[in-house]
Each structure stands twice: as structure tokens, then as C-alpha cells.
Specification:
five-stranded mixed sheet, elongated, EC 2.7.13.3, alpha+beta, 12% strand, binds magnesium ion, 360 residues, binds adenosine-5'-triphosphate, Heat Shock Protein 90, two-stranded antiparallel sheet, Helix Hairpins, single chain
């Protein structure tokens, strides 16, 4: 931006130092002058001393000395001020150069300002913290993009192989080919949709309205009931009206993902899923608990990372992208909520989403 060039802060500080010194020097000399005048008569003869100074003598003696002192103060103020201002502003130079480096794309550099806590140190530390967050965020985005492309490439490559085979064998079973293509294509669509939901939640680009979590829980369990029945899993829903503020479609997606997980990552036989909603003084809670294999407590906190799938036995008919819980985490964050994952004591998972209670 074309801003008019101004005096540097160092120069301005120097001029202020020198200026103050000059004002203080002038005041001091003026005081001395007034003090001297009291003891020296106007120009009349005072008494019989060998030498009795008059005001004009005093003037002659005082003024050149005063001028010398002022000149000295001026030089001293300018040189000392320049030096002091330089020392005071040195951290700013480092902060500025770090900002320039960050602006040119190097996020790994840190200011690492040493010394005691003061305003500059605070600024430098906050700047370093911001750089660290930014760096982590960019790395996360890059990992995400790489993972997403990798995941999308898989169904596309499978389709390519299927089409290749069909081309080489024109008389082959078209029906089976179509069925397979349909399934693989469906996976690619699901994955793309999951990515879109993630980006919508991450950008927080949605309108907020009053949503009752207990209604969402009912809707999600109703939709997934056939899947639960097919797997012989009992679904229970209970709880109070739990009003939150947010996007109904995103929060329904969150609930559906949790219930879907609870069904597909459950016991092979005789599993249960319990969905409950409750109201606390400041928050509303949605809890989805399910039976299942015993989970390693150290791995549980990582399950909500993007593209993280459990390595344990997965139902052959459910190969997920590992985005379900990441979407839940992202939607929860976009609604200023908190997500907790806890392994069940006898296996399975207990997921709790806490959101701010909607004002009455
Ligand atoms: N309710 C649950 N009970 C037991 N394990 C779970 C549960 N929910 C998630 N997990 C584990 O966490 C992993 C990640 O879950 P997530 O929903 O993110 O991915 P996914 O279900 O594998 O795939 P996607 O949801 O994208 O179709 C799962 O692979 C599973 O191992
Ligand atoms: Mg899932």
C-alpha cells in the first residue's frame, strides 16, 4: 500500500529524548539564573568588597557557560537517545523480520525472544504461538488433501480395473459388472459427500436455529433401524428434550454418524445401542453407547482423526472411509461443543457430545 513515508520510530524516540533533556536543562539553568539574581544587585555599588559583581558581569559569565551546557545536552540527548532507542526497539526488528519470513511462506521460523516478560516478549511469544498453530493447521490440511485424494483414487482405480476386464471380455457377465460398478461408485459418492460435509462444518458456513437433539436422535435411529435389525442389534432411545442452537442438517448428520458407528462397530450377535439425551445447567448432552469388542484405551482418543479406521475386525460389508467420527468432531467444534470418547468397561464405545444449551 502506498503510504507516505514517515520518520522512523527510532528517530522520533531520539528526538523526544533530546527534546526532554533540553527542556529539563533549560528549566534547571533558569532556576540557577533566578537564584543568582536574588543575590546580585542590579548594577549599583553594593559595599566595600574587593570585587562586587554586577548583573552584567553575571550575564557575561553565565550565558556562554549555559550555552555550552545546552549544546552538550543536545549532543548527549541525540547520541544517547539514538543508542537507547536502538536498544529498546531491537526486539521489534526481530519480530518484524519474523513476520516478513512468515508472510513469505516460511512458517517454521520462530522468534524465540529471550529475556524477562515484558510487552515485546508477550508479543513475540503470542506470535510464536500463532505460527505454531498455523504450521500445524497447514500440515493437517496437506495431510488431509493427500489422504482425501488417496481415498478417492481407490474406488476410481477399482472401477478402472472392472472396466478394463469388461473390455477385454466383451461377452462377460454384464449384470455382475454393473452391480460392482454401482457399489464402488456409491463409495466414491459417499466419500465425496463426507468431504463436503467436513468442509462445510470447518468453514462454519451454516445458518443456526433451535434444534432439539432428542428429535434428531429419534430421526437417526428410525432411519437406521433396518440396518440394526439386519445385524440383530437392539436400538434404544430415551431422554429429555434437549434444545441446542445450530444447523439441523449437520447435527442430524452427527447423530446419524454416531448411531451408524454404534451399529456397524458392534458385536457380531446380540449387540445393543443406547442413545440418550439430557439437559445440564448450561449444556445439552447426546450420548451414544454400544456394546462391542474391547478397545485399546490408548487408541480411543485417536479414533476421531481423519481417515482413522480401527484396525480390529471390521464387518466385511462395512468398509468405511474413517471419516465418520472426524465429521462428528468437526461439527461439534463448529457448534462450540465438546466431544468425548470413552471405551466401555465391557467393550464398545461411549461417545458424548456436549453443546451449549439454547437460551429459553
Ligand atoms: N461406536 C463404536 N464402537 C466401536 N468402535 C468404534 C465406534 N465408532 C468408531 N469406532 C472405531 O473408530 C474407527 C473410526 O470411526 P469412523 O466413524 O471415523 O470411521 P469408519 O466408521 O471406519 O468409516 P466411515 O464412518 O467413514 O464410514 C472405526 O473404524 C472403528 O474402529
Ligand atoms: Mg463410521
Amino acid at each position: 500500500m502506498g503510504r507516505a513515508p514517515g520518520l522512523s520510530v527510532r528517530l522520533r524516540l531520539t528526538l523526544s529524548y533530546a527534546g526532554f533533556l533540553m527542556v529539563a536543562g533549560t528549566l534547571l539553568l533558569a532556576t540557577v539564573w533566578v537564584f543568582l539574581l536574588r543575590y546580585v544587585p542590579d548594577s549599583t555599588y553594593l559595599g566595600p568588597g574587593p570585587f562586587s559583581p554586577t548583573r552584567s558581569d553575571l550575564m557575561d559569565a553565565f550565558v556562554p557557560r549555559a550555552a555550552q551546557a545546552m549544546a552538550f545536552l543536545l549532543v548527549f540527548g541525540l547520541v544517547g537517545g539514538w543508542f537507547l532507542a536502538g536498544r529498546m526497539l531491537a526486539p521489534l526488528t526481530r519480530i518484524t523480520s519474523a513476520t516478513r519470513r512468515a508472510a513469505s511462506g516460511s512458517l517454521s521460523h520462530r522468534i524465540d525472544l529471550e529475556g524477562r516478560q515484558d510487552e515485546f516478549r508477550e508479543l513475540a511469544d503470542s506470535f510464536d504461538a500463532m505460527l505454531a498453530r498455523l504450521e500445524a493447521h497447514v500440515a493437517e490440511q496437506q495431510r488431509f488433501a493427500a489422504n482425501a485424494s488417496h481415498e478417492l483414487r481407490t474406488p476410481l482405480a477399482v472401477m478402472q480395473t472392472l472396466l478394463d476386464l469388461a473390455r477385454r471380455d466383451p461377452g462377460g457377465d454384464t449384470r455382475t459388472l454393473l452391480d460392482r460398478l454401482y457399489v464402488v461408485n456409491g463409495r466414491a459418492i459417499d466419500l465425496t459427500e463426507a468431504l463436503l460435509v467436513l468442509s462445510r462444518a470447518d468453514q462454519r458456513s451454516f445458518t443456526r436455529e433451535r434444534v432439539d437433539l432428542s428429535l434428531l436422535a429419534e430421526e437417526a435411529t428410525e432411519t437406521l433401524l433396518p440396518l440394526a435389525e439386519q445385524r440383530g442389534i437392539v436400538l434404544e432411545t430415551s431422554g429429555d428434550v434437549a434444545p441446542a442452537i445450530g444447523s439441523p442438517s449437520l447435527l442430524l448428520q452427527l447423530t446419524t454418524n454416531l448411531v451408524h458407528n454404534a451399529i456397524v462397530h458392534n458385536l457380531a450377535e446380540g449387540g445393543t445401542v443406547r442413545v440418550t439425551t439430557s439437559v445440564r445447567p448450561e449444556t445439552v448432552e447426546l450420548t451414544v453407547e454400544n456394546t462391542g469388542d474391547v478397545l485399546d484405551p490408548r487408541r480411543v482418543p485417536t479414533l476421531a482423526e481423519r481417515f482413522r479406521r480401527g484396525s480390529e475386525r471390521i464387518h466385511a460389508d462395512h468398509v468405511g472411509a474413517g471419516l465418520g467420527l472426524a465429521i462428528v468432531a468437526s461439527i461439534t467444534e463448529a457448534h462450540d461443543g465438546a466431544l468425548t470418547l470413552a471405551p466401555g468397561p465391557a467393550g464398545g464405545l461411549c461417545v458424548t457430545v456436549r453443546l451449549p444449551l439454547a437460551p429459553a
